[in-house]
Amino acid sequence: MDDQRLEREDRSAMTAVDVTKLAVALPPAWVALLRDWDRSLRAGNYPATTRYNYLLAAAQLGRYLSDPQSATNDGSCTDPSTVTKQQVEDFQAWMIVTRSASTALNKHKALQQFFRWLLDEDEIAQDPMVRVRQPKTARKLVPVIGDQETRQVLRTCSAKQFIDLRDEAIIRMLSNTGARLSEIANLGVEDVDLDTDVVHIHGKGAKDRRVRLGPKTGRAVSRYVRARARRKGADLPELWLAERGGVPLAANGVKIMLRRRGQRAGVANLHAHRWRHTYAHEWKLAGGDTGDLMLLLGWASDDMPRHYGASAAAERAQVVQARMRIGERV
Q: Per-residue pLDDT tens for 146-186?
């Protein structure tokens, strides 16, 4: 099984986790425990995407430790209950080399959950993750996207064919709400109230929120909905339809669409998260309340407002400095 291919799949569109598929080439003890862990995660109402990521990390560890071709072990670890701290560290170092430090960090967090569950189930007497350090990662600054760049992208949707109406509605919604790509991509028809121009967003961790659309965004969504009603697949519950075939447009399709629109508009490295960072930056620049921003963007951690829009922090500081006129009032 190609683990890297699995990681590239459109997990946000998944409604179920196929443990059998993830457990290919794993020893029986690993397969049985992954199946039972998934049952426990489902009972805890964990989203399918989270369950997939957790189970994938454990399956990757199991394949690594049971593979005699792995450079740092003899492939003799066929039972999760025998995993040692050294083996986890070897796997983590391998992930850093073959993937990236950020990927290794994600695996680390998922494996913490796995071994805590094994401890709760009395499958292990000691958690091997307790003294395993998290890999250090450099926090990348995501550049905000200016109004002119957004205009350039929207101009590529000026033909007003079905695909143009759909893409303009998606782009305006991303820009206007600051929502995550998965949140916008997974909207249903029933999530949009065009009488009040309010969208019901299903966020991470089953945290739902309602966000009001601006007039331009509401108009763009309304135009798309009218065109959608005449398309094959109009009876589907998903809001966004693919150009052909009457099937939903998956999150990966939205990602590809944005990349293509960006290339056509001459806007480099266009992706949905840039608008999310821009939303946070402009909110702070206008003096908006941090608590309100957390509610609007679906954040639970106080660290998120500091991270988002960080690439433009100097600009905000200069605006405040000019407004305060420190040293200039005398």
A: 999 999 999 999 998 999 999 999 999 999 999 999 999 99
Q: What is the DSSP letter of 200?
A: E
Q: Which domains does the chain have, with CATH numbers?
A: 3-120 (no CATH), 147-321 (1.10.443.10)
- The closest alpha carbon to 82, from 100, 94, 68, 65, belongs to 65
Mean pLDDT across the stretch 247-272?
Answer: 95
Cβ–Cβ < 8 Å for 283, 274: no
| CB 61 within 8 Å of CB 132 | no
Q: Say which residues have a Cβ less than 8 Å from residue 240's Cβ, sequence separation at least 6.
A: 166, 170, 185, 187, 248, 249, 254
With a CB cutoff of 8 Å and minimum separation 6, the contacts of 128 are: 83, 84, 85, 87, 88, 115
Contact call for residues 254 and 171 (beta carbons, < 8 A):
no
How high is the pLDDT of residue 183? 94
Query: For residues 5 and 160, what is the distance between their CA atoms, to the nearest angstrom?
Result: 35
CA dihedral 222, 184, 316, 270 (to 10 degrees): -100
